[in-house]
Amino acid sequence: MIEAALMCLALNVYFEARNDNMVGQYAVAQVVMNRVQSSKFPNDVCSVVKQSRKDGTCQFSWYCDGKSDRPREPYAWAYAQMVAADVLQGQGFDTVDMTQGATHYHANYVRPYWADKLEYTVTYGSHLFYK
Question: Of the residues 13, 50, 80, 102, which has the fewest C-beta atoms closer than 10 A?
Answer without folding.
Answer: 50
